Inverse folding.
């Protein structure tokens, strides 16, 4: 699941629901024990609520989705570099595939970490030098000491990854916020385009504040200041409590609801749904909230016409987090671009249609660069 503005109210809702059910179950059991509630039905109800709070996912997940033949899992490389940054953060950078292959640097979206690239690492590393990194505060990368989670900060981090990518010009592949970081990189480091960067692949991403290009954008714009931003600051303030709520949502299965709505179209496998939810549960709510606030200041509309390298745009036909019209507009304004729309797929097209995704990436790298 990607931590996008569209998801914020839904994440809070499922978290409060999960907390309420657990608290309600404990209360019923306590009152039954004290003799205030009499009858076996209260005991069974309280037990059911508590047990569901910690194991409901084992019931709901098999009912929701089919099992797959190749389910994603956490996978780390033994070839790793740790990159120290001026703000005190340390980046985890991992390498896959042949050392002399075309470098492709994969930047994940906001919420998961580089483990989200399970399929891409396995499929693309057969022919390319695949380089993945965890954004600061996520995965194995540490948090910046100055609490700077702006898109510009991440673009500077990406430049540091490009610097260790090898002698060949790299292709920058960014999903969701990772694509935003790539576009900001192009504005901040235009001298590297064509020299250290051979091309861009922008996946399910946008060129401006994601609120403006998501479904229900008019409503979300109105809610940004009075509702969404206060919820984000509250998530920072009570981060440990919010994290507990998120894990309860994962354990009881309600987190699958927000993951399904925001990322998939129903063709994903059981493992893909569970893995996406698990990755989102690992992330600190304070880190996610600060990064989301940083997205509200993002706008690279004027950068698009200045990008002088080939660009591949990939989007899921049913993406509601960064809707396809965002990719259509970028395709119209970028000087050298092509657009591939994956069907059926949502915001997590890189996972839901992983074979199509890897084929599109490979074809672009082989024929255009």
């Amino acid at each position: 699941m990607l931590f996008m503005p569209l998801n914020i109210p839904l994440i809070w809702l499922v978290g409060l629901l999960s907390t309420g059910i657990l608290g309600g179950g404990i209360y019923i059991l306590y009152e039954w024990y004290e003799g205030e509630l009499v009858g076996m039905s209260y005991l069974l109800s309280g037990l059911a609520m508590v047990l569901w709070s910690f194991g409901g996912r084992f019931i709901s997940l098999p009912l929701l989705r089919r099992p797959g033949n190749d389910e994603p899992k956490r996978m780390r490389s033994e070839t790793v570099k740790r990159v120290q940054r001026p703000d005190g953060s340390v980046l985890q950078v991992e390498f896959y595939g042949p050392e002399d292959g075309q470098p492709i640097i994969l930047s994940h979206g906001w919420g998961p970490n580089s483990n989200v690239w399970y399929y891409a690492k396995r499929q693309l590393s057969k022919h390319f030098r695949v380089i993945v990194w965890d954004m600061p505060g996520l995965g194995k990368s540490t948090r910046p000491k100055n609490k700077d989670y702006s898109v510009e900060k991440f673009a500077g981090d990406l430049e540091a990854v490009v610097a260790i990518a090898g002698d060949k010009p790299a292709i920058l592949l960014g999903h969701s916020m990772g694509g935003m970081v790539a576009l900001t990189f192009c504005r901040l480091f235009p001298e590297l385009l064509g020299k250290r960067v051979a091309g861009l692949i922008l996946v399910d991403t946008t060129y401006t504040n994601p609120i403006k290009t998501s479904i229900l954008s008019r409503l979300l714009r109105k809610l940004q200041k009075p509702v969404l931003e206060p919820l984000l600051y509250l998530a920072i303030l009570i981060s440990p409590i919010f994290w507990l709520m998120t894990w309860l949502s994962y354990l009881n299965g309600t987190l699958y609801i927000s993951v399904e709505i925001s990322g998939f179209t129903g063709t994903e496998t059981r493992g893909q749904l569970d893995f996406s939810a698990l990755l989102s549960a690992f992330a600190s709510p304070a880190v996610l909230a600060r990064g989301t606030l940083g997205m509200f200041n993002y706008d690279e509309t004027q950068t698009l016409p200045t990008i002088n390298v080939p660009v591949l745009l990939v989007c899921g036909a049913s993406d509601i987090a960064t809707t396809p019209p965002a990719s259509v507009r970028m395709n119209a304004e970028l000087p050298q671009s092509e657009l591939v729309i994956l069907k059926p797929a949502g915001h997590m097209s890189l996972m839901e249609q992983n074979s199509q995704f890897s084929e599109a990436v490979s074809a672009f790298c082989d024929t255009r660069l």
